[in-house]
Specification:
Elements (H helix, E strand, L loop, with lengths): L4 E3 L4 E2 L10 E3 L5 E3 H8 L5 E3 L5 E4 L29 H42 L12 H20 L6 H12 L10 H8 L9 H27 L14 H21 L3 H24 L19 H22 L3 H13 L10 H11 L13 E3 L5 E3 L12
Antiparallel strand pairs: 1-2, 3-4, 5-6, 7-8
Keywords: Coiled coil
Length: 410
């Protein structure tokens, strides 16, 4: 025992130290060292503050950082057990809770990636089926994909709720401690008041997964709406809405726009720039669908839909101006990030869509109707300009034979 190395700084053995000057710490694994040696290795200064003489004099705020490692024995590397060495209980508890929070966040990120992958698969299936839907075909062929979109949106909202601050492990533990330490005199005291009295530093929650799950919800609605309107547009003769879970499509669109705007506001507050940009692009796309819907159904307005409360999105002009403002802010964020060319390009494309007069590519059906009008005899264009061309000498010539004029008429 006297030959045991206990001082890791000066490599002194147990027989060469003074217990009055260098007290010994015995760990749960049976190894023992000087307190000064173990304090430095386990990072005790991460949770306590010292005065000018090097003595501990207070608690350090650890709410903005995670423990790097779990405290362990310098020799055998076995984790220091709680309540065996009470000197390090605060450090051990912090490391254990941080490890639990890390696993909680990793699981949330994994679930979020799974939802995003499923959304991409659904979008790919809709794109592949789009070519199979003939113009005028009234049979609805994408019911399974739309149902999958609805399930995905429900799961995204559930994940967002599960990852909120009140459901995180640290918050649950602090609430349990506050309830356990409640005295008979403070039956009416709230949990937050008891937490402040306990002087426990709670970690700030990371809302990135929560907001990311809500973004998946918005994008799933965007994908479904986009395809629904495309099917309706391709079957003009019988443009009946698919039997989905919503009765009034316009009301659903406005509600999704409101949810998307709330998401953008909260993401801005948390400085999640990429979520802000992606949500803004989705907002702009859904607003375009909303404008198309109102052009196709001019008799139905938002005033007929009995919206709950004032959202600032009641009028089409308000939605248009809100979209332009959000796109301008998103484009500014792209310039600040400087490492998102793809997002910047998508944002610029949406900005161009909302800039005054816009020209679209003429479709094959439109070209055919133009040609039909040009060659339809008296009901069409009288000049039949489509029949003329220039010869090699530059003279205008008709491809139909020109009748000879009798000399008597000259």
């Amino acid at each position: 025992m006297g030959d045991a190395r206990v001082d890791l700084l000066e490599w002194k053995t147990y027989s060469k130290i003074s217990l009055d000057e260098d007290p010994i710490i015995v760990l749960g694994c049976g190894h023992f060292f000087t307190s000064e040696s173990v304090d430095g290795l386990v990072g005790l200064d991460e949770v306590y503050t010292r005065d000018k003489d090097g003595k501990f004099d207070g608690l350090r705020d650890v709410s903005s950082s995670l423990a790097s490692v779990i405290p362990s024995c310098p020799d055998c590397k076995q984790p220091i057990r709680q309540f065996v060495t009470k000197r390090y209980n605060r450090l051990i508890n912090r490391a254990v809770m941080d490890e639990t929070c890390k696993r909680f966040l990793i699981k949330g990120r994994t679930d979020l990636e799974g939802l995003e992958s499923r959304l991409n698969d659904i979008e790919d299936k809709l794109n592949s089926k789009r070519a199979l839907i003939a113009v005028g075909d009234t049979k609805f062929q994408n019911r399974a994909e739309y149902a999958a979109c609805e399930r995905l949106a429900t799961e995204a909202l559930a994940l967002s709720k599960a990852m909120k601050a009140e459901n995180q492990p640290m918050k649950r533990l602090m609430d349990a401690i506050a309830i356990y330490q409640k005295s008979p005199r403070d039956d009416v005291a709230s949990l937050s008041a008891r937490m402040e009295a306990m002087n426990i530093a709670t970690r700030e929650s990371d809302n990135q997964i929560t907001l990311g799950a809500r973004l998946i919800y918005i994008k799933s609605k965007e994908v479904m709406f986009t395809d629904v309107f495309r099917v309706i547009d391709s079957s003009r003769k019988s443009a009946t809405l698919p039997q989905l879970s919503f009765a009034k499509l316009s009301l659903t669109l406005i509600q999704v726009l409101k949810d998307c705007r709330d998401l953008i506001t909260q993401a801005n507050e948390g400085n999640f720039s990429r979520i802000v940009i992606l949500a803004t692009i989705s907002f702009a796309k859904i607003a375009q669908l909303d404008a198309w819907y109102h052009r196709s159904h001019p008799g139905e307005t938002t005033s007929d839909l009995h919206l709950k409360g004032k959202t600032g999105l009641e009028n089409l002009e308000d939605r248009f101006q809100t979209t332009r403002d959000l796109l301008a802010a998103a484009l500014k964020l792209c310039d600040e990030l400087r490492n998102c060319p793809e997002l910047q390009q998508k944002t610029q494309e949406m900005v161009r869509l909302y800039e005054g007069t816009r020209y679209e590519t003429v479709t094959l059906e439109e070209l055919q109707s133009i040609k039909t009008a040009m060659v339809s005899g008296r009901g069409g264009i009288a000049t039949h300009s489509g029949h003329w061309y220039n010869c090699i000498n530059g003279h205008p010539v008709s491809k139909f034979p020109i009748p000879r004029i009798a000399p008597s008429y000259l």
